[in-house]
Amino acid sequence: MRSKMEYVLEEDSRGKKVPRRVGMSPVMRAGVEYEFTVVADMDLEHRLAISKSRCEVIADKVAQPGRAGELADTFRVWLDTGEALADRAAVDNLIATFDDIPTVADRKAAKAAFVAEFGPPDQLTDSRYADAAQWISDYFTTPTDDGKLV
Predict the structure, then answer these.
(1) Whole-number Cα distances in Å, 29 to 1, 32, 35, 98, 122
(2) CB-CB contact of 110 with 149 (8 Å)
């Protein structure tokens, strides 16, 4: 795809209109973005913004400079599984139960244990959702070393 530099006119401190470069603008035929599975735009600060994706997990995400690999890994997992991801709202509700853990250290440990067992929450598949929900339920009902429940 071709691109061209895009400019906007802004007023400077003296009240004169001056052009300011705002980034690259794609030059393509109308509707071409519908032919892709993922469409992303990179701005002058090297942020990668997903503007269209069939992979719901990365849709509308923005990767900061040097962090695009995380989006790429998530997308790769989605492609490799060939399996639907668990409903995002349900996963978010499941993970939100960790917020009830009173101390930051215990909360981080619980989240790390979950990720070690099931991977990142945004990559949880439908087929593993029930196991993850059971794991969290067990986690909150298993006594700790001092005999308290989490």
Answers:
(1) 10, 6, 11, 48, 34
(2) no
- What's the pTM? 0.46
How many C-beta atoms lie closer than 10 Å to residue 86's C-beta? 22
- Residue-wise pLDDT for 23-72, tens only, equals 777 777 776 656 788 888 888 889 999 988 888 889 999 999 999 999 89
CB-based burial of residue 125 (10 Å sphere; 0-12 exposed, 13-18 middle, 19+ buried)?
middle
Sorted by where each begins, the domain ranges of the chain are 1-32, 36-82, 88-141
Q: CA end-to-end span of the chain, whole Å?
A: 54
